[in-house]
Design goal:
13 helices; Isopropylmalate Dehydrogenase; 338 residues; homodimer; disordered C terminus; alpha/beta; eleven-stranded mixed sheet
Chain lengths: 338, 338
């Protein structure tokens, strides 16, 4: 297997990116990691690591799409970027998957408009978050690619999310639910109500509406929403966790007795952090484009990059693109017809 | 001042409701608390308290809108409910405000269709959450009354939220922001983009878009959204906080050393809980109806009921209904015209 890693991806590129690639090359020695980006920078960074015997290759790309570049502009103007070159390798069949912690809007634009393009029949690609929860992992989509959606898009998101949960997370018959403001069938905005009706007729394990608490307590394997609401959910989850941990740290360290308590309890806090550690997941796929693309957080560390590469491997093994193509042809249609 | 409390409101009615009313009557002895609901139940419960010298009155209502009653049906069929009678007293001027921890959909239907009705010019009433955050309080609306919104509704929500933040929370020139999937002006779904344009022209202290993390870190005093997205945000916040606290408790108690640490750190955890305690807020108003209505959580305890009554007092003192009426007439219109 050949996996392309965008060495110019994360906020701190190339440090965590290269370190993660080295970890991955060591963990999966049969696979090849292709580092794409500015050759001088990559070579300098690689020298800090012991890479003997590792299958690491460099493919140069002279331009970089930076985090604060306007996505549409950058995708159009920086045609020699690591994103164009990297996804180009997947497009031509020279690699099996592309992994980046770079500008999400940039990935979306380069993938859909300039390189991989959509799987035939897919209305809109969707960005996925794999939520690392105490109860297990939940596939949430769309979390930001499409701020405005039609019911038909949500039906396709449900199908693609279900395929991914099966192929990559190993869920058998993944439960699929719509994010809503109440569990009862009549709840939701117009979009959700119409999508509910479409999903009820699809050949999916559709379990109805879920509220955020059902998502976090593992009542579903796949959570479907428009990209605006999904984005708000993900960001509220992150912001709340950050607010609470900051507050707990503040209050514990404000007093010597509680500070001692905090020290004794530290292993427990570490286990909590471990159980919901986004770096163990690494990133989420951009589903619906004609190739495997995994997008990590800009703040990815080396472990997150390695995990994202691991996820790309599973997506390749699970033949996710073909499964979505077949699914669009056969499943997700009205039950009567399947 | 005369404040009506729905004695048949909370999930555990009448226990926390009556206890909270007694606390309020004791704290604000110049005001009168009118308990509305089934007289026998109220009298029996009141006997458990020392009510000597307190201004507590009972107004009977023979029916109860229960938590699981379908709102539209219950509002139409149970015309002698504590909601109809209670809001009726506000409508006729026999009381200044109505407080309930009951069925939210029921409150909305009884208020808008059968008793108080809308303030002239208000397109849609909005349900407000007053978020109790470490940085202070944030007025969030709509959090559930309107799943589908037009830009004009959001403009009115912004105005009503601003009036409330000023009158009740004492904010001078409250900062008003739109909840979005990015801070930049062009971000958002179509609704947010169109509302952004309207708000830019309104006579409000409009600061633009905010993401969830800006809401939680106190970058705005008022957060405006459609009722679907607002509901998802509130519920994600609650669910994440619950998930984290459960997880921390589990991990701390899983080992004797960390359990001792947890005991020593307990005062710090208590301060954390105190600083974000929803019971100190009690509830949020239903803004846009022609009278003051405060809606508490079904799981309200006595403190929450007392706090909700306290909030109703401030809303009366701040003359919120008249301020919204005036605001609709003068503010929130295009700056050129004001």
């Amino acid at each position: 297997m050949r996996i392309v890693l965008d060495a110019m991806g994360s906020d701190q590129y190339p440090v965590p990116d290269i370190a993660g690639a080295v970890m991955a090359a060591r963990q999966w020695p049969d696979d090849e990691i292709i580092l794409v980006g500015r050759e001088d920078i990559i070579r300098t960074e690689l020298q800090k690591h012991d890479t003997q015997g590792l299958q690491l290759e460099i493919v140069p790309a002279t331009e970089v799409i930076e985090m604060d570049d306007p996505p549409a502009w950058a995708a159009k103007e920086k045609r020699r970027s690591s994103m164009h070159v990297g996804m180009g390798l997947v497009h031509t069949g020279d690699a099996d998957a592309y992994v980046t912690a770079g500008n999400t809007g940039g990935v979306l634009a380069v993938a859909t408009l300039y390189t991989l393009r959509r799987i035939p029949g897919v209305k809109r690609p969707a960005l996925v978050a794999i939520l690392p929860l105490p109860v297990g992992r939940v596939v949430a989509l769309d979390i930001g690619a499409n701020a405005d959606c039609r019911p038909e898009y949500l039906r396709q998101f449900a199908l693609m999310g279900s395929v991914y949960a099966q192929a990559v997370l190993g869920c058998d018959q993944p439960r699929v639910a719509l994010l809503s403001n109440g569990e009862e069938p009549g709840k939701g905005n117009t979009l959700v109500k119409e999508a509910y009706s479409l999903l009820s007729k699809a050949s999916l394990n559709f379990i109805g509406n879920v509220e955020p608490k059902e998502v976090l307590t593992g009542k579903t394997d796949v959570m479907v929403s428009d990209g605006f609401t999904g984005n708000v959910l993900i960001k509220t989850l992150e912001a709340t966790a950050k607010m609470l941990t900051t507050l707990i740290r503040q209050e514990i360290t404000a007093n010597p007795i509680t500070a001692i308590g905090g020290l004794l309890a530290k292993p427990a806090f570490n286990r909590v952090a471990q159980r919901i550690n986004p770096s163990e997941v690494g990133g989420g796929p951009l589903l619906g484009v004609n190739g495997i693309v995994i997008v990590g957080h800009g703040r990815s560390d080396a472990l997150a990059i390695k995990s994202a590469i691991g996820q790309a491997r599973k997506a390749v093994q699970g033949n996710v693109v073909a499964a979505i193509r077949d699914g669009l042809a056969h499943k997700g249609k009205a039950k009567e017809k399947s």
